[in-house]
Design a protein that fits this description.
heterodimer, A: 15 helices, 18 strands, globular, B: mainly alpha, two-stranded antiparallel sheet, 12 helices, about 75% helix, about 0% strand
C-alpha cells in the first residue's frame, strides 16, 4: 500500500516536472522568464519586507512616490506616483499625485492610499522593521483626491530619499485581506502578484491596467535559491536567465561559459570593521590606525573579490550625499602598523574577531585573510565566523571586539549609518566624539543641499583619522546573466529589475 | 599478550590498519617537521593553485593551495594533529564517564541501576547531532568545547556495554568468593570485575575514536567545530565544498586523510576484537 502510494507520488512529481519543463521550454516569443533569488522575502507586503531580494521582487509590483534613477553612476530622485512636489515651508511637503493610476484590484490611486500606507507603518501595533523611513513624519493629511501634505518634526532634507523606500499599498485590500496581504498584496506596479509559495518561488504577471509602459513578460518567476552553487547551477543549466549574488570567485566560471556573462557593479554598501570602544586597546587611536595600516585592502579586492570593486577611501561610498572623494585611500603599511602598535603599549591581549559567513560576498574568506594580516602585524586575535542568524545577535550584544559588517542606507543620505555608528547617543560601538555629534546635529536640519553635503564630507574627513570603523571596500554586486537577456542593468542600490528587459529566442 | 599479538597478526587488515594508524600518529606528532610550510601562512596572490604548482617565491605546493593560498599538504598534516587528539581525548573523557557509570549501574542493583540506566535511555533518545549542535551553539566553537560535546554525547555507548559485561561477570564464582571473604565493594569492582570487562570496553573505545573523528569533522564542516582558522580535516572539507568544481584538491586530500584514519582505526578495532574474543581463543591452537 505504502509502496503504491510512493510510486504514485513519484509518478505525479515526474509528470509535474515534465509539464513544467514543457511550459518553460515552449518555442516562439519568450513570454515567461525565471530569476534565481538569494533569499525568501518572508512577507511581500512592502510595509514589512526587510530582505534584499524581497525589495527587488516588490519593485516590480509596487511603486513609491519618488524613486532613485541612476545614470552613469550618479543618482537622481525622480517622481513615480508623485507628479510633482514642493516645500511649502521647511517642515511641510506637498506632493501632487499622478492621475489615472490604478491598483491591481481596479481601485484608483488617491491621496488616502498614501496616507494609509505611511500611517500604518508608523502605527505602534504594526510590526515592521521599516519604521525608520517615515520616522520624521509627524502627520500626513490629504487635500482633495490627489494632494498629500506631510509635516515633519524638524526640517528633514532627507525625506525624499526615505520615501523611495515606502511603496504605496491599496488600503481596502490591506484591511480586508488581513494576513493574506503578506502573500498577495496589491500595488500599482507593472506586474501583479500571481502566487507566492514561501521558500519556493514568487510569480508575478503583467498588469494590463498599468499607467506607464507595460511590462514585457506575461510572467516572471523569482525562484528562491539560498545556496550559491544552486543558483549558479540553475543559471548554467538555463533554468533561470539571471542569478543574483554569485560569489566573486565564480567570475571566471561564469565568464568562461559562452552563453553567460557576469554583470558587476559597486553598490552603496560599505564593508568595514567595527571596533568596540569599550575595549581598552581599541579605544586608543593608534591601535585603530595600526589595524588599518595592517590590512592590504588592494590585495583583498584583487585576490579575493577578483577585482570586482574598489578599495574604500571613506566610511561612505561614492554616489551618496557628501561623499568625500578628496580623501586618500587607506594606506597599507605593515611597518607603520607594527610601530604604532608598539607605541600604544599593546601587551598581546586577545582581541575577539567576529565575522558572518554567507551574508556578504566572500565575507568569511575576507575576514580570515584580515585575521592573517592582523596576526602578522602582531595582534593576538581569536577568530570566529558563524552564520548571519547566529552572528547578528552576538554583534548587538557586543560579544566581539572587532567585527565585520556591510552597511547601506539604501537612500542617498548616510544618516542611518552615521547615527548608528558615530553619534554618542546611539553608537553601537560606543564611539564618543563631541565634534562629530555637533556636525551630525547640524546636518539634520540643514536644508541647503550643498551645505549639508559639506557637513557630511567634513565628518568623513574626521573619521578618516580617528577610525572608529575601518572601511575596507564597497560591496560589489555580481549577477550572473544569460546573454539572451537584453537590457538588464545592475543598480547601485542592489535592486534587480527585469520587468522591461527582453529575452532573445 | 603473546597470544593476542599472534591472533592480531593473523588478520591482514588489522596489521595494515595498524601500520597506517601508526603512520598517521607519527604524522600528527612530527607535524612541524613534516609539513613543508606553516599551515596558517596565507598567500592571497597564490590562491587556488592546483597540486604540484610552484609559486613566484619558489615554494612548491605538492597538493596545491586553498582559497586563501595556504598549503593544502601542510594543513592536511596539521589537521591530523587536531583530529586525532580531539578523537582520542573525547574517548578518554567519555570512556571514563561511561566506564564509571557502567560499573556502578551493573554492580549495584535497584534504584541506582534504574536511575543511571534511565539517564542513558534519555540521552540515547536524543538525536546525537542535534544535541551536539545545540551545545556547541551555546558554548561557542573552541577545541575544548568540541571535546566536551563529543565526550558528553558519547559516554552512553560505553555505559551500556560495561553494564552488561558487569552483570555477567559479577555472577562468577571468584566474585562471590571475594564477597564471601568480606572484600569491600571498591576492591571487588576495581580489582576483580574491571580487569575482566576491559576487552569489550577497549573494543568499543577503538570504534568510538573513529566515529568521533568523523563527528568532529562534521561539526567543523557545519562551522560549529573548532575555530575556523585552525586546520582541521572537517574545516578543510567545508572550505573546499564551495570550490569542488574548480579546485577539487582543497576537499579531496583532507577527505582521503579522514577516510584513512577512520578506516585504519576500524581495522585495528576489528583486530583487537577478534584477538580478545575468548570464544575465538578456544579455536586457536597454541
Amino acid at each position: 500500500m505504502l509502496i503504491r502510494k510512493l510510486a504514485l507520488a513519484v509518478l505525479m512529481t515526474f509528470l509535474l516536472l515534465v509539464s513544467l519543463g514543457l511550459a518553460t521550454a515552449a518555442p516562439g516569443d519568450v513570454r515567461e522568464i525565471a530569476i534565481a533569488s538569494g533569499a525568501d522575502p518572508v512577507s511581500l507586503d512592502p510595509r514589512k519586507t526587510f530582505v534584499g531580494p524581497g525589495y527587488s521582487i516588490n519593485a516590480h509590483v509596487f511603486e513609491p512616490l519618488v524613486f532613485r534613477e541612476e545614470t552613469n553612476g550618479t543618482i537622481k530622485i525622480v517622481g513615480v506616483l508623485a507628479e510633482k512636489w514642493e516645500n511649502v515651508n521647511p517642515t511641510t511637503w506637498k506632493f501632487t499625485l499622478r492621475k489615472n493610476v490604478k491598483f491591481h484590484n481596479g481601485r484608483p490611486l488617491n491621496a488616502r492610499a498614501v496616507q494609509y500606507t505611511i500611517e500604518t507603518i508608523m502605527a505602534a501595533d504594526f510590526v515592521t522593521s521599516l519604521k525608520q523611513w517615515p520616522k520624521d513624519i509627524v502627520s500626513v493629511t490629504t487635500e482633495g483626491d490627489h494632494v498629500v501634505v506631510m509635516k515633519t518634526k524638524y526640517p528633514t532634507p532627507g525625506l525624499l530619499s526615505s520615501l523611495c523606500q515606502v511603496p504605496i499599498v491599496e488600503p481596502n485590500a490591506a484591511k480586508e485581506m488581513g494576513n493574506d496581504f503578506n502573500i498577495k498584496p496589491v500595488g500599482t506596479g507593472p506586474y501583479k502578484i500571481e502566487s507566492y509559495i514561501p521558500n519556493s518561488h514568487v510569480t508575478v504577471s503583467r498588469f494590463d491596467g498599468y499607467w506607464g509602459k507595460k511590462g514585457t513578460y506575461d510572467k516572471i518567476t523569482f525562484k528562491i535559491m539560498p545556496v550559491n552553487s544552486v543558483r549558479l547551477a540553475a543559471l548554467q543549466s538555463g533554468e533561470v536567465v539571471l542569478a543574483e549574488g554569485i560569489p566573486p570567485d565564480k567570475l571566471d566560471v561564469v565568464n568562461r561559459d559562452p552563453r553567460l556573462y557576469m554583470a558587476t557593479s559597486k553598490t552603496m554598501r560599505v564593508v568595514f570593521l567595527n571596533l568596540e570602544m569599550k575595549n581598552k586597546w581599541l579605544s586608543k587611536v593608534e591601535v585603530r590606525q595600526a589595524i588599518s595600516y595592517a590590512i592590504d585592502r588592494q590585495l583583498l579586492v584583487d585576490a579575493l573579490l577578483c577585482g570586482t570593486t574598489v578599495v574604500a577611501n571613506s566610511v561612505s561610498p561614492p554616489g551618496t550625499v557628501g561623499y568625500n572623494d578628496k580623501l586618500p585611500p587607506y594606506e597599507y603599511n605593515l611597518g607603520k602598523a607594527k610601530q604604532l602598535l608598539k607605541e600604544s603599549g599593546y601587551d598581546g591581549t586577545v582581541l575577539k574577531f567576529g565575522a558572518c559567513a554567507g551574508r556578504y560576498n566572500m565575507d568569511k574568506q575576507v575576514s580570515e585573510a584580515i585575521v592573517g594580516m592582523l596576526r602578522k602585524a602582531g595582534f593576538n586575535i581569536e577568530f570566529e565566523a558563524v552564520d548571519w542568524g547566529t552572528y547578528r545577535p552576538k554583534t548587538i550584544e557586543n560579544k566581539y571586539d572587532i567585527w565585520f559588517l556591510g552597511q547601506t542606507d539604501f537612500t542617498l543620505n548616510p544618516t542611518m549609518h552615521y547615527t548608528g555608528k558615530f553619534d554618542t547617543a546611539t553608537s553601537d560601538i560606543d564611539y564618543k566624539d563631541p565634534v562629530v555629534d555637533k556636525l551630525l546635529t547640524d546636518s539634520a536640519s540643514e536644508m541647503n543641499p550643498e551645505a549639508r553635503a559639506a557637513i557630511f564630507s567634513k565628518i568623513q574627513e574626521l573619521l578618516h583619522t580617528s577610525m572608529p570603523t575601518v572601511p575596507l571596500y564597497y560591496e560589489p554586486q555580481l549577477i550572473g546573466v544569460s546573454k539572451s537577456l537584453v537590457g538588464f542593468v545592475p543598480r547601485l542600490d542592489e535592486y534587480v529589475l527585469v520587468g522591461y528587459t527582453t529575452v532573445k529566442k | 599478550m603473546n597470544r593476542f599479538a599472534k591472533k592480531f597478526r593473523q588478520r591482514k587488515t588489522a596489521v595494515i590498519g595498524l601500520v597506517i594508524l601508526v603512520g598517521l600518529i607519527a604524522t600528527a606528532v612530527f607535524a612541524p617537521l613534516l609539513a613543508p610550510y606553516d599551515p596558517e601562512d596565507q598567500d592571497l596572490r597564490n590562491r587556488l593553485k592546483p597540486p604540484g604548482t610552484s609559486d613566484a617565491d619558489g615554494k612548491v605546493h605538492i597538493l596545491g593551495t586553498d582559497h586563501l593560498g595556504r598549503d593544502v599538504l601542510s594543513r592536511s598534516i596539521y589537521g591530523a594533529r587536531l583530529s586525532l587528539s580531539v578523537g582520542v581525548s573525547a574517548v578518554l573523557i567519555g570512556g571514563t564517564i561511561g566506564l564509571v557509570v557502567g560499573l556502578m549501574s551493573g554492580y549495584s542493583d535497584g534504584p541506582v541501576d534504574a536511575i543511571l540506566m534511565r539517564a542513558v535511555d534519555v540521552q540515547l533518545a536524543f538525536p546525537f547531532m542535534l544535541l551536539a549542535l545545540t551545545i556547541v551553539a551555546i558554548l561557542g566553537p573552541s577545541v575544548f568545547n568540541v571535546v566536551l560535546v563529543l565526550a558528553v554525547t558519547s559516554w552512553t555507548a560505553y555505559a551500556k556495554v560495561v553494564r552488561s559485561s558487569v552483570l555477567s561477570v559479577k555472577k562468577q564464582i571468584y566474585v562471590e568468593a571475594a564477597q564471601a571473604i568480606g572484600a569491600s565493594r571498591w576492591r571487588i569492582v576495581f580489582l576483580h570485575i574491571l580487569p575482566n570487562i576491559l576487552s569489550p570496553f577497549i573494543v568499543v573505545a577503538t570504534f568510538q575514536v573513529s566515529r568521533l573523528i568523523i563527528t568532529e569533522s562534521s561539526l567543523s564542516f557545519l562551522g560549529l567545530g573548532v575555530p575556523t582558522d585552525i586546520a582541521t580535516w572537517g574545516g578543510m572539507l567545508s572550505d573546499g565544498r564551495e570550490y569542488l568544481t574548480d579546485a577539487w584538491w582543497i576537499a579531496v586530500f583532507p577527505g582521503i586523510m579522514l577516510l584513512l584514519a577512520s578506516l585504519s582505526i576500524n581495522f585495528v578495532g576489528d583486530g583487537i576484537r577478534d584477538a580478545m574474543d575468548p570464544k575465538e581463543l578456544i579455536v586457536v591452537k597454541e
